[in-house]
Amino acid sequence: MSSLKDKRIVITGGTTGIGRATVRLLVGQGARVVTVGRDESALAEALESMRELPGRVHGVTADLGTRAGVERLFAEADARLGGLDALVSNAALGADPIDAMEEEAWRYVVAVNLVGAMSATRAALARLGRGGQVVIVGSISAAIHAPGESVYSATKAGLSAFAETLRKEVEQRGLRVSLIEPGTVGTDMQESSAEEQREKVARHEMLLAEDIAETIGFVLSRPPRVDVVTLRVEPRVQELP
């Protein structure tokens, strides 16, 4: 394992779910992290809960569905980190079937989930030196095509193709790109209540956000000779359409 102490990492979507669990894990290992969220109060609460951890964490309120939001995030990263070792692209929104959403609503989901992730990755590539890493959090929705997920699965399928192609484009620069595709995870994105989620976790039908955070930590701590290309992580009893 390579130490994550003092590693300079940007994590998108760090106020809830997988993103928040990842920020906590990496800062707990001594990393220096800048994260981003759309809700100022949620971001402040998340940051305050991690102040006693060994690493350092800073946050910025920004909308990654906009070009200005991505620019604001990386301006903060430049000021706080002075360089970059890794990006964890995690921010995402859930969605209804396309014909159950207003035009602007589904376009915004695409703007955050796909365009925002690509834009953040492009900004990270301009800052990453040899040995740098990009970890993109996708979803098994890219492959299973569950009814009701026409918009969401399209964005995640786009991320899958983006990550796998980008890896080939940047490997000669000594950069690594990894795609993590979680199955069902207990997060705010789930429609089930907190109690229902606990029951599903107990039945091995749902993962904890911390399970995916640990997967991300595993990828980031591999030695330079190891390239983790794609990891599909499911609960033992994954419901499929």
- Shape estimate: globular
Order of strands in the sheet with most strands? 3-2-1-4-5-6-9
Low-confidence runs (pLDDT<50, min 5 residues)? Answer: none
Number of strands: 9
User: Approximately how much beta-strand content do the residues carry?
Assistant: 15-25%
Supply the CATH superfamily name: NAD(P)-binding Rossmann-like Domain
- What are the secondary-structure elements, in order, as H or E? EHEHEHEHEHHEEHEHE
Polypeptide structure, described:
There is one protein chain. The protein is an alpha/beta fold. It has one domain: NAD(P)-binding Rossmann-like Domain (Rossmann fold, 3-Layer(aba) Sandwich), CATH 3.40.50.720. Helix content is 44%, strand content 20%. It is built from 8 helices and 9 strands. The chain has a 7-stranded parallel β-sheet, with helices on both faces. Strand 2, helix 2 and strand 3 form a beta-alpha-beta unit. The longest helix is centred in the middle third of the chain and has 23 residues. The chain starts with 7 loop residues before the first strand and ends in an 8-residue tail after the last strand. The mean pLDDT is 95.
